[in-house]
TrEMBL record:
Subcellular location: Cytoplasm
Chief localisation class: cytoplasm
One cellular component (GO) term of this entry: cytoplasm
Listed name of the protein: Phosphocarrier protein HPr
Assigned keywords, A-Z: Cytoplasm, Phosphotransferase system
Superkingdom field: Bacteria
Length: 88
């Protein structure tokens, strides 16, 4: 298992299009991916799960992956969230 904390940088948080992009990238990996925010944990490969977190700009989330490509998955998702997702 590999985890990392990240602060959401984009203005709209993980809502709609940014959440869809996050899920699209997460689904490229074989590992199970979860996101935790405010004590809730959801499947990082589920658009409904990611959007249900209601994670906004400036909030800290924890991305956790478990599987053969866990480190690569977490690092790719952390890098994605460090960008302004609305510009992608």
């Amino acid at each position: 298992m590999y985890s990392k904390k990240v602060i959401i940088n984009n203005e709209v948080g993980l809502h709609a299009r940014p959440a869809a992009l996050f899920v699209r990238v997460a689904n490229k990996f074989l590992s199970q991916i979860n996101i935790e925010s405010k004590g809730r944990k959801v499947n990082g490969k589920s658009i409904m799960g990611v959007m249900s977190l209601g994670a906004f700009q400036g909030e800290e989330i924890i991305i956790t992956a478990r599987g053969e490509d866990e480190k690569e998955a977490v690092e790719a998702l952390v890098e994605l969230l460090s960008k302004k997702l609305e510009d992608i």
